[in-house]
Structure formats: structure tokens, C-alpha cells
Amino acid sequence: MLDPEQLSVQLYTVRGALDEDFDDTLAKIAEYGYTNVEPFAFIRFFDQLKAGLRSHGLSAPTTHVGLLAAEDQDAIFEAAKELDIATVIDPFTDPARWQSAEGIADIAGELNAAAEKAASHGLQVGYHNHNFELESIIDGQYGLEALAAQLDPAVVLEVDTYWAHAGGADVPALLDRLGDRVQALHIKDGDGSLDTTKQVAVGSGVLPIADFLAAAPDALVVVELDDSEGDLVEAVAASRTFLTGSRP
After folding, report:
1. Helices 22-31 & 46-55, crossing angle to 10 degrees?
2. Domain ranges across the chain
3. Would you give per-residue pLDDT tens digits along the chain (248 residues)?
4. Which CATH architecture has domain 4-244?
5. What are the residues whose beta carbons fall under 8 Å from the beta carbon of 246, sequence distance 6 or more?
6. Angle, CA 220 vertex, CA 219 and CA 225 arms, to 5°
């Protein structure tokens, strides 16, 4: 079972609830026993997030933001620093860029440049995958691995295990090959398909969650559902209970 301090939750999962009542949603997450969250596009609700993290005893070690497409990366890093975020993760790039070695090399170069800028703020940069980085095969290897081979050691990976599985990867073997580059995992469950509405609370689907966790035992574990036919806030609570083996 996971140490609760190793667990986080991607706030995109509860975006609907945040829109309805931002502070109350953070309060519920804290009541469930989470101590870490992973914000998305945090500049949009910076003030609410800053106040909510403080009042509910939550930390945000990582965040998702469209870093490579941003006009002012320094502003993002400065804001992240103010929230004590350590790692700024780009969550998505155009799938068309993953269809050639040249496209992947360009992405690696952009991440490396961003990491150099982040370092001047005392931060690091990461990349989060979807399915298409694994569906892409470049010179006999997954596109994600082709990227990793060209990244500066300062750039980390947050492997979304569900999307890697949906993309056709042997996820534990992939995590083993990527090694210490993997600093965080997205853990979600469901039927393993590309239909996000079929995602469910961790432990309620068909994915081999224990195998994923065993392959990267030191990684930060971030619970996420992109969507679901069920209640997403309840799924966040049930996922923590499954992963830690206890209720708050």
C-alpha cells in the first residue's frame, strides 16, 4: 500500500466541482486524506488556489500547464515558485509532431530550453504523455522513448500509465527502461480503451495497477480520471482508499 504522502490528485479530475465551488472542493480533497494536489492551467485561478492550498493544508509539488505553447514561460515559473510548485509539466503536444523523428527532436529541444529557463527559477520541467506518444514508433522504439533519449537529464517524465497502456505499451517494461527519468505517474483505471467515460476509480477497472506501481516505486502517484460515467469527486475518494488501504 502507498504512503499517503506519496499520493496526489490531478485537479482536472474535479474541474466541474471546482467551477461550482472551488474552496469546498479543495476542502473535500483534504478531508479525504490527500495532502498533495496537481493543479492544471493554474494561472487562471491562481488566487483561489493560493488561498485554498494554505487554508486546507495542501501542497502542489507538480502542475500541468501548456508550457511549450506559452508566450511567457518566466511568468509561469514565477507563479509556480510562489505556490511552492517544484515541477512544471507540459501535459500535451500536437499528435502530428510525433509522426517523425524530426518532430520529436524539436519537442525535445523545446523541453530542454524550457528546463534551462526553469532552472534559473529553481524549478524543473516535465512531460506527460497520452496514447499517441506510444502509438508512434520511431526507428523501432516508442516515440516517448525516442523523446527521452534526447532530453537533458534535468527534464523528467510523468508517465500516464493508463494512456501508455491504451497506446499499446507494456507499461511496467516501459517504466523499467525509462528508469529514474520517471518522477511521477498518472494512475487511472477503467476498461483500457480510448473512451474516457469508461474510466473509473482506481481499483475498480481492469488495469494492473499494482504492476505499474511496482515498476516505479519511488514516483509520485497522481490519481486522475479524464472523465467518467460516475461521480468524479467520489472516484477521487475511492481511489485513495484503494491505493492506501485505509480511509481518512
Report:
1. 30
2. 4-244
3. 899 999 999 999 999 999 999 999 999 999 999 999 999 999 999 999 999 999 999 999 999 999 999 999 999 999 999 999 999 999 999 999 999 999 999 999 999 999 999 999 999 999 999 999 999 999 999 999 999 999 999 999 999 999 999 999 999 999 999 999 999 999 999 999 999 999 999 999 999 999 999 999 999 999 999 999 999 999 999 999 999 998 76
4. Alpha-Beta Barrel (3.20)
5. 1, 33
6. 120
Q: Which residue from 38, 44, 122, 37 is spatially nearest to 78, judged by alpha carbons?
A: 122
The answer, as to whether pTM is greater than 0.90, is yes
Quote the CA–CA distance of 208 and 140 in Å, as a whole number: 25
For residue 186, list its beta bridge partners. Answer: 160, 222
* Ramachandran angles phi, psi of 28, nearest 5°: -65, -40
Q: Are strands 62-64 and 220-223 parallel, antiparallel or unpaired?
A: unpaired
- Single-letter amino acid code for the residue at 221: V
Confirm if 210 and 224 have CB atoms less than 8 A apart.
no
Contact between 42 and 95 (Cβ < 8 Å): no
Please count the residues of the chain: 248
Q: Show Cβ contacts of residue 232 under 8 Å, excluding neighbours closer than 6 positions.
A: 13, 14, 16, 17, 225
